[in-house]
């Protein structure tokens, strides 16, 4: 089964590159350029429109919408709501990246209102953010997680929690950390790719959400799209780390991650993927 998943993800990558789908982002200004370049690297086409005057029109011609709550203000929040409603009305898949949910009441309430007013195909976040969405009393420090997912001791407990939350929110959850987990409440997969150094680059989570959006553009299976996006990000992080030169630091690492995604192939994905579940 895992071998077939690896093969199918490679096929999905080829499909993205053959069709160059338009992925609309309403994202944060810290990582907007990285998200655009990662979307291009995987073979899709990014647009980063966030004006209330055009988001409905832009969503209508897009193949997927990614909403990221990293840098909020009244104008972008209004645009997020309008875009999400339009996407639901048009049957366009949505990704939510609830950056920093739990850090402030405004941020948490914004995410909760988005969840109340629209259905998201995939929610990608760290474990702390997902715990907030589940209604648990979790505190985060901006985009940092205080809860750490231990892939061994807590794997079964975490699996049950994520599966229950996915069913509760009627979505696919992609929870990234030391070990990543993707679940739609019925199917669950752990991904053991990636590097701890990725946490020292601002925006790797945001870029991962962009990858999920790109894959959602070419499949109706949100679980499969989330799995593909998270896996590609982890493998790109591994390859980039292996290519770092002694004098290079996190800025070079960021660029090498994007370059690694650009050079991903179906064969490379199949050869490096570490999936369990």
UniProtKB/TrEMBL annotation:
Positions binding ATP in this chain are: 124, 176
Positions binding substrate in this chain are: 48, 203
Its lineage reads: Bacteria, Pseudomonadati, Pseudomonadota, Betaproteobacteria, Burkholderiales
| Cofactor section | Mg(2+)
Entry similarity comment: Belongs to the Thz kinase family.
What gene is it encoded by?
A: thiM
Q: Which domain of life is it from?
A: Bacteria
**NCBIfam families registered for this protein in UniProt:** PRK09355.1, thiM
* Pathway participation: Cofactor biosynthesis; thiamine diphosphate biosynthesis; 4-methyl-5-(2-phosphoethyl)-thiazole from 5-(2-hydroxyethyl)-4-methylthiazole: step 1/1
The UniProt entry, under InterPro entries, shows: Hyethyz_kinase, Ribokinase-like
Keyword Nuclease listed: no
| Protein name (Swiss-Prot/TrEMBL) | Hydroxyethylthiazole kinase
Q: What is its EC number?
A: 2.7.1.50
Q: Which reaction does it catalyse?
A: 5-(2-hydroxyethyl)-4-methylthiazole + ATP = 4-methyl-5-(2-phosphooxyethyl)-thiazole + ADP + H(+)
MF annotations from Gene Ontology: hydroxyethylthiazole kinase activity
User: Which keywords has UniProt assigned to this entry?
Assistant: ATP-binding, Kinase, Magnesium, Metal-binding, Nucleotide-binding, Thiamine biosynthesis, Transferase
Summarize the protein's role: Catalyzes the phosphorylation of the hydroxyl group of 4-methyl-5-beta-hydroxyethylthiazole (THZ).
Q: Does the keyword NAD apply?
A: no
């Amino acid at each position: 089964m895992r071998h077939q998943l690896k093969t199918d993800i490679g096929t999905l990558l080829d499909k993205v590159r053959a069709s160059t789908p338009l992925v609309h982002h309403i994202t944060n200004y810290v990582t907007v350029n990285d998200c655009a370049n990662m979307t291009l690297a995987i073979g899709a086409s990014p647009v980063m429109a966030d004006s209330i005057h055009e988001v409905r029109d832009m969503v209508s011609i897009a193949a997927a919408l990614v909403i990221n709550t990293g840098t909020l203000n009244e104008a972008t929040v209004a645009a997020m709501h309008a875009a999400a409603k339009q996407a639901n009305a048009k049957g366009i898949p949505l990704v939510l990246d609830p950056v920093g949910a739990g850090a402030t009441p405004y941020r948490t309430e914004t995410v909760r209102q988005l969840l109340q007013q629209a259905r998201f195909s995939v929610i990608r976040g760290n474990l702390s953010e997902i715990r907030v969405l589940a209604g648990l009393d979790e505190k985060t420090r901006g985009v940092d997680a205080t809860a750490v997912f231990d892939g061994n001791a807590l794997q079964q407990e975490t699996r049950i929690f994520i599966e229950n939350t996915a069913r509760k929110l009627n979505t696919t959850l992609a929870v990234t950390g030391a070990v990543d987990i993707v679940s739609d409440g019925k199917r669950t997969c752990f991904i053991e790719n990636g590097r701890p150094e990725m946490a020292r680059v601002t925006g790797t989570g945001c870029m991962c959400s962009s990858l999920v959006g790109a894959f959602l553009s070419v499949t109706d299976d949100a679980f499969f799209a989330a799995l593909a996006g998270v896996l590609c990000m982890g493998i790109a992080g591994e390859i980039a780390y292996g290519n770092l030169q002694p004098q290079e630091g996190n800025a070079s690492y960021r660029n090498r991650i994007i370059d690694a995604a650009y050079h991903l192939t179906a064969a490379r994905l199949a050869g490096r993927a570490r999936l369990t579940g």
